[in-house]
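Why predict the complex rather than its parts? Because the way molecules touch one another can change local conformation, and only a joint prediction can capture that. The input here totals 280 residues.
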Amino acid sequence: MKDIYYVDGEFVTADKAVIPADDLAILRGYGVFDFLRTYHGKPHFITEHIERLMNSARQIGLDLPWSQEEITDLVRQTLSRNTHRESNIRIVVTGGSSPDYITPQGKPRLLILVTPLPEMPAWWYRDGVRIITIHSARNIPGAKSIDYISATIALKEARRQKAVEAVYIDRDGRVLEGTTSNLFVFNGDTLFTPGRFILNGITRRVVLEIAARWHAIEVRDIELPELLSADEVFITGSNKEIVPVIAVDDTIIGDGQPGHRTRNLMQAFAASHDHDVCSP
Ligand SMILES: Cc1ncc(COP(=O)(O)O)c(C=O)c1O
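Output of the joint prediction:
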């Protein structure tokens, strides 16, 4: 069965999902999106994701004609028209059509794409992954804008180097975040993560809450030497959860295996979403 998307007022099959060529998303890369997944068929942290979508829109000056409740309802409707066991959900708001091809007209388009959730490779979680660093940054880091050019370039380079993610280092030497993930570092029992010039990850927030049970937490800038000499490193994201990192560029982290603190957080994180779903 074909995936069903919501596109600008209609439910259509994925092959019929089109928007006009004069949309500012196409012409100018002007738009925002958010990404979430289901656990046990239910959209996870939907309120937080839609709030972040609305915040992203505010940050790029895109006025949304929909309330949070309307978007939530449309997400649920789109989900109910699909039959995947677990789904990825992409909510996209484009700038809309524009007669002068640059000025928004206050008529954005809303797209909701529901697709089957792919399995992440089991070895990532068992063995840990290698990531690379790249001197680059996102334009408006607090907004999930549809402009992921730096991510596409960085990920292509990561794949060329047989790594699974690239993390940005900005002009001032700060390590910020991955192309689609947030970054965490353990030094002893203290957990560090950058707090500015990043996307406020929903997974990051959950991890910080969980980690506070066992660890001191410092939200602050991290520089490359600190990353390379860390005892443990991991990345987080809605699509990948918590992925242990065992090498950064050519430097082995710790003893080259996922560390026990990271493993503990992975377990607690898994328990947290099962609990969320089971609780009344
Ligand atoms: C740039 C960036 N940082 C961090 C994240 C992780 O955010 P979340 O945990 O909300 O998925 C993402 C998610 O795609 C991202 O694109």
